[in-house]
Amino acid sequence: MVYIIQENKTMRNPHDPEQQLIAEAIAIFQNNNNIRQEKGLDPLDKMTLPMVGTRVTFYLVPVTDELNNAVVYGTYPESETKVRKCQCKVDGVDGCMEDPVYRTRALQQYIAFKDLVKSY
């Protein structure tokens, strides 16, 4: 089960939605494992989630059982979690999907991102 999230509901810092995005990735990991257990399947120890953020930004968020447990119990994980990020930028364009040059480049990057996700 793979989710791609495309939203920003942050209230405190609407210009930096990455914290929300990572929190949602952890919630997806938890929900996915709950569904797997309901179906009699073993929960996953690790799941890398492809995410699409605001202003066409692509993320790969690796969520491990260790990270999940740290969130559940309010502790720090022993291992560092590295989130990969690729932001679509086009020189001379403000990053708006209404601009055909930007939209073309963003869609090209999306196709490349889909291929990259398959390797995780």
Give structural attributes:
single chain; 120 residues; alpha+beta; 3-stranded antiparallel sheet; 3 helices; 3 strands
What does this structure look like?
The protein is built from three helices and three strands. With 120 residues, it is of the alpha+beta class. The chain starts with 17 loop residues before the first helix and ends with a helix. Strand 1 (46-53) and strand 2 (57-64) form a beta hairpin. A three-stranded antiparallel β-sheet has the order 1-2-3, sandwiched between helices.
Largest sheet, if any? 3 strands, antiparallel
Q: How would you write the strand order of the largest sheet?
A: 1-2-3
Order of helices and strands: HEEHEH
Counting helices, strands and paired strands, the structural category is: alpha+beta
Rg, Cα atoms, Å: 16 Å
What separation lies between the terminal Cα atoms?
13 Å
Mean pLDDT: 82
What is the subunit organization of this protein?
single chain
Strand content: 15-25%
**What is the count of β-strands?**
3
The amount of helix comes to: 40-55%
- Extract low-pLDDT stretches: none
Number of helices: 3
Describe the structure concisely:
By secondary structure, the chain is an alpha+beta fold. Helix content is 40%, strand content 17%.
What's the topology here?
Blueprint: H1 18-38, E1 46-53, E2 57-64, H2 65-73, E3 84-87, H3 100-117
Antiparallel strand pairs: 1-2, 2-3
